[in-house]
């Protein structure tokens, strides 16, 4: 269920017609994935942090860089 909501949010962000708002939507949902990865890595299995959290944190960094270049 969680993955479906995240996927729907990311698809929404990709398809949203206004690129400024699209980036903010994508940033929100990738931060959600990052938080879930960090929490899972701390409470369940350490590998979740690297498999889910690290790629999401990289995506957050790249999206943030893109947003700040636009401003």
UniProtKB/TrEMBL annotation:
Pfam families found in the cross-reference section: DUF1304 (PF06993)
Record-annotated membrane-spanning stretches: 21-42, 49-68
UniProt keyword annotations, A-Z: Membrane, Transmembrane, Transmembrane helix
PANTHER family: BLL0914 PROTEIN
Identification of the protein by name: DUF1304 domain-containing protein
């Amino acid at each position: 269920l969680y993955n479906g909501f995240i996927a729907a949010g990311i698809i929404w962000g990709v398809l949203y017609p206004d690129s400024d708002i699209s980036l903010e939507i994508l940033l929100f949902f990738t931060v959600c994935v990052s938080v879930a990865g960090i929490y899972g890595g701390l409470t369940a299995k350490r590998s979740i942090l690297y498999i889910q959290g690290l790629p999401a944190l990289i995506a957050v960094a790249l999206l943030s860089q893109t947003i700040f270049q636009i401003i």
